[in-house]
Amino acid sequence: MRLRRMRQLPDCGVARRACGFDQDEEAQWNLAMRILPGLVRRREEDVAMDGQMVQEYLGRLGVSERGPDVEFLRELQEHHLMAVPFENIDFHLGEPIRLGEHALDKVVRRNRGGTCRELNGSAFPELLRELGYRVALLGSRVFRDDGPSFPLAHTVIRVDTPRPWLVDVGFGRDGARYPLRMDARGPQHDPNGTFEFVPGPDGDLDLLRDGTPVLRIEHQPRTIDDFRHVLWWYENCPSSPFRKSLFCTRESENGRITLRGNLLTRTGKEHREKVLLIGDSEIRKAYQEHFGITLDRLPPIPCE
To answer: How many other C-beta atoms lie within 10 A of the C-beta of residue 244?
Structure first.
């Protein structure tokens, strides 16, 4: 099944429509597929966490270690969403997006965030394994106005306790605050909305948020290497949403804080405040004050 899905990617009409491919961009996608074996051979070193890094990671999240049960998993996801931003700063600094131990170091030692490949694919699942959870990576498609995107567009985590839970700390505003039961049918209420799993094609699961599809999740486990060609596309294709937009966002106690370019937005249960930041000093202060990020240089703001 995995090989069948991988072969579909270069010729997937859904991918072309979802990403707005023109001929040049389609050529870039096909190039990524041709060099995929090379990308896998040049993969980063395996993730390695020692006890000190586990404690540093938990310290950033503001939690103390205990047994790997469902309640601790809920606490870990909630605190991760509040402490570690979903951000794409390195895409605009021209820095390569590196996975494995490099993503773990970025989150724990450099006090940064990342995208789903870094957060869901590398850093957080390794912490969960070290804490004693059974973890698997799953691929998913992201629903847009015209339907689901190409395969493996988003990386999520399944944690078995032994019941299967969807864990996602790298999806921004459309994700749940707490893990979701993947084997449950019917509404699951969450501070971020009402979520529900419904059967999808080929054994996949569609995740709805407030009645609207947001993800189509595969059932078979993946490795981080399975996502490298898609990451290459996100880094290099001009129509990649990560190249077209600069963002840094995290959850707060009552809502969300987002810096998109030089526009700072705070949302709560009953309010939304937008502030246009003027000059580099105000932007640097916002990164530091709201996300704990100190940058040697600021990323250029793309024209959206």
So the answer is: 13
What pLDDT score was predicted for residue 173?
Answer: 85
| DSSP for residue 224 | G
Q: Determine contact, residues 19/25, Cβ cutoff 8 Å.
A: yes
**pLDDT for residue 7 is more than 80:** no
> For residue 61, what is the enclosing H or E element?
helix 51-61
255 confidence band (pLDDT: 50, 70, 90): very high
Check if the beta carbon of residue 14 is closer than 8 Å to that of residue 149. Answer: yes
State the average pLDDT over residues 3-19.
Answer: 37
Non-local (6+) Cβ contacts of 19 within 8 A are 25, 29, 149, 150, 237, 239, 240
Token pair in block for residue 186 = 């019917």
Nearest residue to 138 via CA among 5, 40, 41, 236: 5
Alpha-carbon distance of 158 to 165, in angstroms, equals 5
Q: What is the pTM of this model?
A: 0.86
Q: Which residues pair with 213 in a beta bridge?
A: 208
DSSP calls for 236-283: H-TT-HHHH--EEEEE-SSSEEEEETTEEEEE-SS-EEEEE--HHHHH
As a whole number of angstroms, the distance between CA 251 and CA 175 comes to: 10
CA–chain centroid gap for 237, Å, is 18
CA 281, CA 102: separation in Å to the nearest integer?
Answer: 29
Please give the Cα distance from 84 to 114 (Å, whole number).
8
